[in-house]
Hints:
- The chain is α/β, with parallel strands linked by helices.
- The protein has two domains: 2-245, Rossmann fold (3-Layer(aba) Sandwich), CATH 3.40.50; 264-463, Nucleotidyltransferase, domain 5 (2-Layer Sandwich).
- It has 15 helices and 18 strands.
- It has helices at residues 36-51, 66-80, 93-97, 102-112, 168-175, 198-205, 229-236, 240-245, 264-267, 317-330, 357-369, 389-400, 416-424, 443-455, 460-463; strands spanning 2-4, 17-18, 29-30, 53-59, 85-90, 120-122, 127-130, 135-141, 155-159, 184-190, 211-215, 279-284, 290-298, 301-304, 309-312, 336-342, 376-380, 408-410.
- Strands 1-11-4-10-9-5-8-7-6 form a nine-stranded mixed β-sheet, with helices on both faces. Strands 12, 13, 14, 15, 16, 17 and 18 form a seven-stranded mixed β-sheet that branches.
- α10 (317-330) packs parallel to α11 (357-369).
- The longest helix is centred in the N-terminal third of the chain and has 16 residues, at 36-51.
- The relative contact order is 0.11.
- Mean pLDDT is 87; it is low at 1-15, 21-25 and 459-468.
Amino acid sequence: MNTCNRPLSSKIPKTGQQLINGMRSPLYHLDYHPNPTQQLFDHAVEQAIRRGQGMVAYTSGQGGGKTFAGAVKFLRLAACNQGRLGLLVSPTYSLAESPGGPLATVRELLDQADPPLRHTYIQSTHSLYIPAFKVTIKVMSASLPELISGLTAAFAWCDEPGIFRSSALPRVLARVRDADAPCAVVIMTGTPEGLHNDFHRLCVAKAPRELVLVQGCTADNREHLAKGYVEQLEAAYEGPQKDSYVMGRFVSLTEGRVYPAFDRAVHVGPVAFDPKAPVMLSCDFNINPMAWCLYQEQEGDLVVPPAGVLCLRHSDSFMASAAAAQRLRDLGWQGGDLLVYGDASGRHGSTNSRVSDYQVMEGEMRRCLGDLAAKVRIRLLAPVKNPPLFDSINAVNAFLRRRESPCLKVDPQGNEPLMQDMEQTCFSPDGQGIDKKDSQVSHFSDQLRYLVTSRLPLPRAVARSRYY
């Protein structure tokens, strides 16, 4: 992924958008005066057109001019893909067709083009036809992702993908598969809507190398907005909402977060696994998912190496132990101390078995490590009894707020479940514990909590202060 925060070239058009390059006649022209961030988006799309393929995303605050810029470049893509099918995807049909929506903006630009571009919109099929380009644009609703299928498109525009229903955005990307398309380009424009949607995953968490992300804020578009609009918007929001809806940043919008001190900008970055150093393994013994994680201590910091997270669905201690042993072998670990932390309940047997989870883990890991097992010393450091919940939560937040060693660093490769869990885990409505309504949330943060409170417990007087 490339992030555009400066012009990629000095040759950026200051005014207007010529839809067709070359000697064709007529040369349709749109009246377009881009703001500085729109210029970056404009140029990134033009680069993708020259390559013949690519993805460009443009995020900004409300009123930042994203939809207008998207409509201009979408028509540019239509002109470059004559005789092909294009997709225009909006959260709902009504939003697409409403004044200021993506479809309404496209039709307005077609009417205002020089010379005007005739077009026909058939609402029953949600199809827009532009005779001059021989292009059909299929308007689709992300609220019905199951209908985004069976199409072969040359280009696409997704407006406000941050509020698309889950799976809609990947389905759109899968439809842009016309092998003969001159410019197989996908553009996306929208306001960031937190960290737990396909738009964030595509732009940040799992961004493909070919994607260019252009980020701006509402103030970039000040000259095209009503006087005082920017100041009113800034006054209307505060905290994470202001970061998202005014500054155009991807931030967590979850209320009542258990671990507000976790910040990807601080705690996520490249980490190299040291095959000669001791390894820590922290375990939460939930069945779905079984949440285990590998750590190392490097220069005083607690680090999670690439693919250090083991997220095992419908698993048990035998399967998790085998997966952990294989992961260590894959990482090239040469053996040494394996320090095991985790939930105190794993020390005890159950009514079904007198063998504890930790006993299972040690035996199974030694079996699966093979020849390496002789070089490994497994040390069980999990507590006999878990500490009080809020003591351990406070310890984790205090640890995360440190700006000196020891601090946490998570490699972004293969560790998304841990990062998402730190952002999504919330307090229960009564504030007396962690909200466990979603069975998929809180287990990875739990295993980190067990590790931190075992290694770095807070002094008792500090730990007892609520919500550290």
